[in-house]
Amino acid sequence: MLFAAFITLNQFVLHINGVPTWYDLFGIRRPISDAVANGEAKVHFIDVGQGDCELIVTESKAVLIDCGEREYAGTVVQYIKSLGIDKLDYVICTHPHSDHIGGMYSVISEIDTDTVIMPRVKDEITPTTSSYARLLESIEDNGIKVEYAQAGKELPLEEGGYIELLAPVEDYDDLNNYSVVCRFIHGGNAFLFTGDIEKEAESDILSSGADVRAQVIKVPHHGSSTSSSYAFVKRVAPEYAVFEVGSPNDYGHPHKETVQTYTDAGCTFLRTDMNGSIVFTSDGKSLTYETEK
User: Fold this and answer.
1) 231: CB partners within 8 A, 6+ apart
2) pTM of the prediction?
3) C-beta separation of 42 from 34 below 8 A
4) Is 232 helix (H, G, I), strand (E, B) or coil?
5) Residues 246 and 49 sit within 8 Å (Cβ to Cβ)
6) Which secondary structure element, helix H or strand E, spans residue 92, and what is its range?
7) 3-class state of residue 233 by DSSP
């Protein structure tokens, strides 16, 4: 194993087998990519084990999508702050399962947040979990605006980028299918964030006529075989498939059937259990990416 360390004023980088991993002097893991350059946007897929967490950063805006379980709240807060971000313009809580919003009450308490976007879930399946209750309390305590996701609405991010909300488009009996699905467009590049939607919701999105094409897809439901239908993946036509999964996990994610679907689509695979945090950089025309591992 090749090993080297380079120390600057307040951080050091370990080069392990030639791969840079950044830490500060207190041993806290830092993002592998710094602030955006003029006209760029960065999309961070933050490793939070068997959970989802994505951060979209432009020159003047920041959007957090999910944050993983409660135990990862500190990791997410440190990650965001180490980028010099002290305000989140939007926080999107895709759906009220703890592996997506478990620590969000803590994140929005520690980082100034303008607006929280979440699905309007029917009363019969509205959760009574402590993580969801704490999220609602934190929103109220911090005076944060709440918006319910409306398919077709656009969120401008300036610098030529915007987010389009695509789902939910119907009512469901399963919280996964209520997931807020959104597409970040930056010039000629697009990223699709899918929460935990399953095949029923995928079909409804396609039937709605929404444009789901994207170079990068956050694979639905951690790569479960209940999601990523052939028709949906074909319509998205992704070049990169990002699986946010923990190692090990009790669900066997990603399932082999789903892996085969994206293999058949010719995707480049990226996985947080193997690659750690993943950061894409868009200049509006081309895409590059870095991985933590």
Assistant:
1) 202, 203, 206
2) 0.89
3) no
4) helix
5) yes
6) strand 87-92
7) helix
Q: Is the pLDDT of residue 232 over 50?
A: yes
Interacting residues of 268 by C-beta distance below 8 A, sequence separation 6+: 239, 240, 241
Taken in order of first residue, the domains within the chain and their CATH numbers are 1-30 (no CATH), 31-291 (3.60.15.10)
Q: Which residues contact 43 (CB under 8 A, 6 or more apart)?
A: 54, 55, 56, 57, 184, 191, 216, 279, 280, 282
Contact 93, 108 (CB under 8 A): no
Q: Please give the mean pLDDT across all residues of the chain.
A: 90
- Predicted local distance difference test score (pLDDT) of residue 39: 84
Nearest to residue 194, comparing CAs of 171, 215, 167? 167
The radius of gyration computed from the CA coordinates of the chain, to the nearest angstrom, equals 18
| One-character DSSP codes across 16-29 | ETTEEEEEETT--B
Total number of residues shown for the chain: 293
> Which structure tokens are listed for 117?
């976007």
